[in-house]
Amino acid sequence: MGKNNKKRGDFMNNFTYDIGTKIHFGTDALDYIGEEAKKYADKILLTYGGGSIKKNGVYDKVIKELEGAGIEVFELSGIQPNPRIDSVREGVRILKENGIGAILAVGGGSTIDASKFMAAGACADFDPWKFISEKRPMSPAIPLLSVLTMAATGSEMDCGGVITNPETKEKLSSGHADTRPKVSFLNPELTYTVSKFQTAAGSADILSHIFETYFNIDGTMFMLDRIMEALMKTVIKYGPIAIKDPENYEARANLMWASSWAINDFISDSSQAAWTVHPIEHELSAFYDITHGLGLAILTPRWMEYCLSEKTVHKFVDLGVNVFDLDKDQEPMEIARQTIEKVKKFFFEDLGLDSNLRKVGIDERHFDEMSKKACGKAGVKKGFIDLRPEDVKKIYEMCLED
Amino acid sequence: MGKNNKKRGDFMNNFTYDIGTKIHFGTDALDYIGEEAKKYADKILLTYGGGSIKKNGVYDKVIKELEGAGIEVFELSGIQPNPRIDSVREGVRILKENGIGAILAVGGGSTIDASKFMAAGACADFDPWKFISEKRPMSPAIPLLSVLTMAATGSEMDCGGVITNPETKEKLSSGHADTRPKVSFLNPELTYTVSKFQTAAGSADILSHIFETYFNIDGTMFMLDRIMEALMKTVIKYGPIAIKDPENYEARANLMWASSWAINDFISDSSQAAWTVHPIEHELSAFYDITHGLGLAILTPRWMEYCLSEKTVHKFVDLGVNVFDLDKDQEPMEIARQTIEKVKKFFFEDLGLDSNLRKVGIDERHFDEMSKKACGKAGVKKGFIDLRPEDVKKIYEMCLED
């Protein structure tokens, strides 16, 4: 960290830490749904996805808990991966028509993300897409609770959500402290049935959330860097175990708790944490509807190669030495190159994800448009290194081949 | 962690995570006092220690903030290190007589700990020592806020407090979710004036809090073990820097934030975390009024030596390899011995603390009584390894010489 007597402004931001989400974690987590939910409302909207929760008993358990607490339950099912603004509109309609006071989202990041927009939309007198298009604040919002069924996005403990508008081919994020879940119920056993592919994609997503904060020139704090490395080690150890042995509680529990802490704001408190890989990926899934974590896995090592320079090499050295146990007595640039190879090996061998865009049916035809969109109206995506559309396009191109 | 398909009960407890303390961290932290305090009460009791805050401007700043928000301020000063139940009684009297709605504690762990007992005492119709002697629950309690001036006990973000009764020579702890501070204001600059000795003792205290949870046979969670190691590395790096260079913001900030996370319940969530070194130390400071962190530093390596066995060696290996960078290819027992030497070097050389009890004027005359008291009425202190009075006495004896 260099010389002593550095003053605050040089490396560490002031911050407010305020993560109020209560978590019930473990095999008995869902037993608390009734008593927690009734603190917030007598009528609750239950949101979920494709109905798998009806097959594995989660739906029955949730209904039993809510009704047992004397809560009137309304439902909105069919929320899709890369959730769409239409689902949000439908949810808002049900909430408003019935005077519903809270939402219980049961699912992965897609269901919880969409529910955040519904929670704010219920308090708004405008179309919820304006949270994105006009950057209207997502506040106030009715209380949101969540039952997590997949470890990936961290939506169960963070403020933000991502929503897709198929008409405009936009996939964008927003969020507010008011949309952070009040209570989340995390039973790792519920993720036993998550497929090998979704487990791999989820692990890639968690790791990417940590990378987005870790790869930061300004605002680093030693303690938080080391904690990020602890979280990375957790994902790198347990992602492959969960794929091979889906009912390994230890692996599922570690992945689930790591998913929450990778993005709940704790690790990013002292930094700017301007994300770059996620916005680049969002264009991939907005244009092609590919799985978010898969897109991140393909993009990340290329983004790393593109960012690597004398100025940034120290972060790659930290990652390689502290997480991948590389020999620290090598040249920094050599360590950095080995680090990126380790990242590739993790994504494409240990997790078994597809290693380039052609393998998932994507070619260069939309790269120009996607690159521009990824950089937004400002024309530049600020972050670990600032990226302009021509930079983003080069990164996409690097993803075409191994 | 051994074989896959372990079930929950074998190694990881279900838990509820619920840490609602809001933290304003950084050079501007105290600017938020007024707006936060007025959310809780119109009359506030300001508690503090020996008046150093009047010399360094903190007192004036706090008063300006509170009065600027239209809050009526009452005061209780003179709260001592190893705070006594008498201060609590006095605080409760002031709170009750004036119908005061909240407390702002300004100081280190002693002031904040004593204020927790006052916060609960204000809602009780019995003498506050009964929170200890009769284990009466410290709930309900009026809201507590804190301004931290020393990084050590973590009281700014946890539920518990320690209180001393000079009449009975007892120093004991209690706590409740209701006594966890609602808001804490952490400006690392306020710790610039903490003496070298107190900085060393505070660093030892933080490290001991982590050890108490880390050295655990049951209930470990890989992710949390790695996070504990991240926190330990932080203390080991920055304790000595803060001693040499008291106005090093980076060092003070890392120590301060680590102090909160060492004990706010996050790292102990999955485990039983039965503490043993702290109760053994509490007898030292109850009988001799020595500085808590100094007592912990002297006791810890002896306790480690006493606990080391084939059954426990793996934790020492983890600590040595992951924190002290020891060569992992050695025999486990050899790594463990080197680990304990590293711990001694840290406490007694890097932090410069006295290395045995004789150096601080303590001999064996009270060891029998202290050993019995440390084990409580049950006659055994359960923890990493269970300790009976004869075990505790041996540990005290090991502390007499280097």
TrEMBL record, chains A, B:
Residues annotated as domain Alcohol dehydrogenase iron-type/glycerol dehydrogenase GldA: 21-188
Any one of the GO CC terms: cytosol
> Does GTP-binding appear among the keywords?
no
Fe-containing alcohol dehydrogenase-like C-terminal domain boundaries: 199-398
Q: Which GO terms describe its molecular function?
A: alcohol dehydrogenase (NADP+) activity; butanol dehydrogenase (NAD+) activity; metal ion binding; methylglyoxal reductase (NADPH) (acetol producing) activity
Q: Name one Pfam family in it.
A: ADH_Fe_C
Q: Which UniProt keywords apply?
A: Oxidoreductase
Which EC number(s) does UniProt give? 1.1.1.1
Q: Which domain of life is it from?
A: Bacteria
Q: Which SUPFAM superfamilies match?
A: Dehydroquinate synthase-like (SSF56796)
Q: Does the keyword Cell inner membrane apply?
A: no
Q: What PANTHER family does this protein's entry cite?
A: ALCOHOL DEHYDROGENASE YQHD
Q: What is this protein called?
A: Alcohol dehydrogenase, iron-dependent
* Biological source species: Anaerococcus lactolyticus ATCC 51172
What taxonomic ancestry is recorded? Answer: Bacteria, Bacillati, Bacillota, Tissierellia, Tissierellales
The gene behind this protein is adh3
